[in-house]
Specification:
The protein is of the alpha/beta class and 362 residues long. It is 40% helix and 23% strand.
Length: 362
């Protein structure tokens, strides 16, 4: 099965409500889609989310990287030689992880079709169904309490609460949420690099003293500050998760060796796709560190790929794959089934996409 064509398109889907973090506000998904065709007529799809404030990738940079750099390295290569394909994707340019991820996902979609098997079964097949959390955007405490109660009524048992705007007000946000939802649902908080190390320690110790029962805190300090991340990890009881600090397997290894965080959040848009994400999973197994499978604000194509990895690996114990559930519509037929908090793997070959609206990039 030989690669003969690589094309790019666009996928735009409005969100049910604005998505707000310490770094940005988004009203719609507007992603780049990659379509790879083989000489046997098989088609594989991938997706890249332009998240400039985190990955540095924009729609323009992703499109250029795929069309003018990555594609030229892959045309004519045989799918059976997946390792060489991924080596070319990794080495053809530095960074540009979202563009690499989109191509990587499309390649693996074809690999699953080649072997007539769902990808999660090829990678380990640990489970075929699991639950995701849902993100509560950062707003005024009263609005966040309303959004949290609505999520619990929809069946979500874990909330990922965005904080990081103002540490004092962040505590009021968490208290307001706990007041309305009680203690049956778990709360994770995500500061998106919004605090400094000492500020994070002060805020988290107060959260502990208030008895707010926080499951974990995600990326409390700036991404580059590994020492600051370790300072927080060493000085609070709440488990600390590294997210923006971990792009490459080397980043993950350094975090694990330093014991700078208790958990690692794997996102395909940061790792450059599944190939490197699998390496991080293997290292986490060796170091005995649990992982979360997360996503940016992405559509169903790339989140299906992330879900397959989450289903495959036992070391992935926490799931943050709510992107499709935040969208106002689902134009894609096939793939994993996203039923609010419950995600079920497709049993079709590859990622199981049956119909994807194709809007070529102009």
């Amino acid at each position: 099965m030989k690669i003969i064509d690589i094309q790019i398109g666009r996928l735009a889907i409005p969100l049910k409500k604005p998505f707000k973090t310490a770094l940005r506000t988004v009203n719609a998904i507007d992603d780049v889609i990659v379509k790879i065709t083989t000489d046997s007529g098989q088609v594989g799809y991938g997706e890249a989310a332009p998240t400039a404030v985190i990955t540095g990738d924009t729609t323009g940079s992703i499109s250029y990287a795929v069309e003018n750099v990555i594609a030229k390295q892959l045309i004519g290569m045989e799918l059976e030689n997946t390792e060489a394909i991924m080596e070319n994707v990794d080495r053809c340019m530095v960074k540009n992880t979202s563009a690499k991820a989109a191509v990587d996902i499309a390649i693996y979609d074809l690999v699953g079709q080649l072997y007539h098997t769902p990808l999660y079964q090829l990678w380990g097949g640990y489970r075929n169904q699991f639950h995701t959390d849902i993100t509560i955007s950062v707003n005024e405490p009263e609005q966040m309490a309303i959004d949290s109660l609505e999520a619990v009524h929809l069946g979500y048992q874990t909330l990922k609460v965005k904080v990081g705007k103002d540490s004092r007000k962040d505590i009021e946000r968490i208290k307001a949420i706990r007041k309305v939802i009680g203690y049956d649902a778990a709360i994770r908080i995500d500061a998106n690099q919004g605090w400094q190390p000492k500020e994070a320690v002060r805020a988290l110790r107060r959260v502990e003293d208030e008895g707010l029962a926080i499951e974990l805190v995600e990326q409390p300090v700036p991404a580059h500050d590994f020492e600051g991340l370790k300072h927080v990890t060493d000085n609070v009881s709440i488990p600390v998760m590294a997210d923006e600090s971990v792009f490459t397997p080397l980043d993950a290894l350094k975090i694990m060796q330093m014991r700078a965080a208790d958990l690692i959040n794997i996102k395909l848009m940061k790792t450059g796709g599944i190939h490197n994400a699998l390496k991080i999973c293997a290292m986490a197994e060796v170091y005995g560190i649990e992982c979360m499978m997360g996503c940016m604000l992405e559509g169903k194509i790339s989140v299906t790929a992330a879900a397959h990895l989450a289903a495959a690996k036992r070391v992935i114990t926490k799931i943050d794959l709510d992107g499709p559930s935040l969208c106002s519509e689902d134009p894609i037929v096939g793939g994993a089934i996203f039923d609010e908090h419950q995600i079920t793997m497709n049993q079709d070959a590859g990622f199981g996409f049956k119909a994807i609206p194709w809007n070529p990039q102009e």
